[in-house]
Backbone:
């Protein structure tokens, strides 16, 4: 059955697309549109193109990419709209994205629902608009806006679309009726092909601005620069040549690993939200409580409030509670100042926030998230008090970053309701949520947590229990190698630069200084010395013992001027490094940047493969989701598992074996899974553990 149907209302042909869930422009949809135009009755005076369901076209069908193209292509479908003998009115609701906006630009007029948005998000997939967006949009809205939309990928509102000529009218209420009335007011004389419009004015300063912006803020990504090239060409090339140039640039991007990596992450982020096994209905979670009003507690509470829940914030001291409450208030008042929230919206949200020092006030909570100091004994005390006051069904979650969730659950009645919800700081901004399932966590509680994660607009990924879960466990291997290379002769700046050039937002030493070196120091004090490579952290420990804890004390691996976060080289640090190296009797050696990147990445990849093999992570793609959304791993590299596939598992194994030769196999024993997949030729990022089914 075709997803495209038509109905003649008077002499207006209404073409309706119904292709759930998001009306992606699949082959069947494209063919249906062309057929509908070809079959239009001779007396058709105008047409309305509309979509059923929750949104207008969400773009080309990404799942068709990489497969042999099927005619009509999207460009051919748009040509058919432009060449139709009657004007076509696009009726836009939800979001018209990518090919969806390009189709609308191929129509003669656009009527938008007041809440609708339009955008060209192709760069988020490592692509550029490939069906005329870079040529038709500037002809309508001018070069500056087209440059911004095509290179940044962010949608704009209906009001902005009307203001800039993209939309011809806004429907305050019934969109279809408005679009129909609009179409009825038109005749075949009102044909107005976008492609026939004059070239846009060149805007050299806008081109320079967005090129510089892309080079700085989208460092390493090729697509934003290609999108700018294509839009710039629209000022000088006629429409046919412009479309040809756009196509060339589009195909270059499509065949590039960067796009494959970013498309991998698109589907991986949707997959990580799904639980294997039979579907379980989640619990209704409306009343939440957060224990601890520190940095994490404040961010978690704000994120819960934004998701629509009521929140009780608990802390032992009135002073700490007041400070936490005020910080939450500030978060939302900043949103008002920046126009992201109305005053009324802010009061409504704060109206759902309460503060208390009494555990008994939490008795009606559906879920409680503990975010207190990272100490197991303190967490046991908190959970013991909680279990005394909340209902038996109340979900109890810990925001621990490392500690044993099973040990915490063991001491609580109904341990099946306990799990980890590991947020990343700042919790109201960072998208990643590591959902840690304990041995006893029930399927219903896990399903409830995943649904809550979606409601909080988080990208959730499930991890089993181990020290540091998926993200931090892998990070410790990355940090280990960085610390060892520091001892062996590389400088913090060289290591940080090599990894930021690779695409990481920050190097490990700048990151350490920012987070505070004492955090890692205190964690290491609690660890079994045999469980980690102590030599890798000798310099870190020495710095902390000298009260060089990073930015907060003005110095760490670097020194900092007051009020400035710029890491500056510091001779006093060089003295510390020299001293530790000579105490360890290390003969120094030269490093080139690829050495540094390889050592850190191979450490990350091998540990990731072990985590997959143990079933701590269910999918290789989940690990990529964790790293892209929680640790700033460059999206255009797809995540550590996808990156491993890109360089080839044989090469990965060879690198690990070479390191085992040089540094011993204590840390460089290849994961069995890596050995198996290198043998079978399978991809690490596509691997799914068999033991995914929930107990
Ligand atoms: N193609 C194929 N599948 C898509 C899709 C698309 N464009 N968009 C969504 N899906 C699937 C998705 O995988 C999921 O599947 C389900 O729909 C619901 O999505 C030539 C080259 C529209 C804002 O980049 O941003 O046009 O997991 O969970 O949170 O120039 O989906 O249920 O099996 O995300 O409500 C440009 C991509 C394409 C937009 C809805 N378009 N989509 O978000 O639902 S490139 C995009 C989104 C292009 C042309 C070029 C979001 C959404 P499943 P969801 P949501």
Residues:
């Amino acid at each position: 059955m075709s997803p495209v149907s038509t109905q003649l209302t008077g002499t207006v042909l209404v073409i309706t697309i119904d292709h759930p869930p998001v009306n992606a422009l699949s082959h069947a949809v494209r063919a249906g549109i062309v057929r509908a135009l070809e079959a239009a009755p001779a007396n058709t005076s105008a047409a309305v193109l509309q979509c059923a369901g929750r949104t207008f076209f969400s773009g080309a069908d990404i799942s068709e990419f990489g497969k042999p193209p099927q005619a009509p292509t999207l460009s051919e479908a748009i040509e058919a709209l432009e060449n139709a003998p009657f004007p076509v009115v696009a009726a836009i609701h939800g979001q018209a994205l990518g090919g969806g906006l390009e189709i609308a630009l191929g129509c003669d007029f656009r009527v938008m629902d007041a809440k609708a948005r339009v955008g060209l998000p192709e760069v988020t997939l490592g692509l550029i608009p490939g069906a005329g967006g870079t040529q038709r949009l500037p002809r309508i809205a001018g070069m500056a806006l087209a440059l911004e939309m095509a290179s940044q990928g962010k949608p704009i509102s209906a009001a902005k679309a009307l203001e800039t000529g993209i939309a011809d009218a806004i429907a305050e209420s019934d969109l279809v009726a408005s679009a129909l009335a609009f179409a009825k007011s038109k005749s075949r004389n009102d044909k107005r092909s976008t492609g026939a419009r004059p070239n846009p004015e060149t805007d050299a300063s806008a081109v320079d601005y967005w090129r510089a912006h892309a080079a700085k803020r989208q460092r390493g990504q090729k697509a934003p620069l290609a999108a700018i090239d294509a839009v710039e060409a629209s000022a000088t090339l006629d429409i046919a040549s412009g479309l040809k140039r756009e196509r060339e640039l589009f195909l270059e991007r499509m065949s590039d690993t960067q796009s494959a990596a970013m498309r991998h992450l698109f589907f991986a982020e949707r997959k990580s939200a799904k639980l294997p096994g039979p579907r379980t209905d989640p619990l209704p979670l409306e009343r939440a409580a957060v224990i601890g009003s520190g940095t994490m507690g404040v961010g978690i509470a704000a994120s819960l409030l934004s998701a629509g829940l009521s929140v009780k914030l608990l802390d032992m001291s009135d002073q700490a509670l007041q400070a936490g409450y005020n910080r939450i208030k500030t978060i939302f008042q900043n949103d008002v100042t920046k126009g992201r929230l109305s005053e009324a919206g802010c009061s409504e949200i704060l109206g759902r926030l309460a503060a208390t020092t009494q555990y008994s006030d939490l008795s009606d909570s559906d879920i409680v998230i503990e975010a207190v100091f990272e100490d197991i004994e303190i967490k046991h005390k908190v959970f013991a008090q909680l279990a005394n006051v909340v209902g038996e069904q109340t979900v109890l979650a810990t925001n621990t970053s490392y500690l044993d969730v099973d040990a915490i659950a063991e001491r609580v009645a109904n341990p099946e309701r306990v799990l980890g919800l590991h947020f990343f700081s700042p919790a109201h901004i960072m998208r990643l949520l590591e959902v840690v399932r304990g041995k006893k966590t029930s399927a219903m509680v896990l399903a409830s947590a995943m649904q809550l994660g979606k409601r909080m607009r988080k990208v959730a990924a499930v991890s089993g229990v181990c020290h540091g879960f998926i993200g931090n466990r892998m990070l410790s291997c990355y940090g280990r190698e960085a610390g060892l290379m520091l001892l062996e002769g590389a400088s913090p700046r060289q290591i940080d630069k090599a990894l930021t050039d690779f695409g990481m937002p920050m190097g490990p030493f700048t990151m350490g200084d920012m987070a505070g070196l004492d955090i890692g120091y205190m964690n290491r004090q609690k660890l079994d010395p045999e469980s980690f490579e102590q030599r890798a952290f000798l310099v870190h420990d020495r710095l902390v013992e000298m009260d060089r804890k990073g930015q907060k004390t003005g110095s760490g691996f670097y020194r900092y001027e007051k009020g400035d976060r710029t890491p500056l080289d510091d001779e006093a640090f060089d003295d510390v490094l020299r001293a530790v190296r000579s105490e360890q009797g290390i003969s120094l050696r030269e490093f080139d940047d690829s050495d540094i990147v390889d050592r850190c990445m191979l450490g990350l990849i091998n540990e990731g493969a072990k985590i997959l093999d143990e079933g701590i992570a269910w999918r290789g793609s989940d690990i990529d989701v964790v790293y892209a959304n929680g640790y700033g791993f460059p999206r255009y590299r797809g995540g550590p598992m996808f990156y491993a596939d890109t360089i080839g598992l044989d090469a990965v194994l060879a690198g690990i074996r070479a390191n085992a030769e040089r540094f011993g196999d204590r840390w460089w024993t290849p994961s069995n899974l890596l050995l198996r997949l290198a043998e079978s030729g399978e991809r690490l990022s596509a691997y799914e553990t068999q033991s995914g089914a929930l107990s």
Q: What stands out?
A: The CA atoms of residues 92 and 112 lie 5 Å apart.
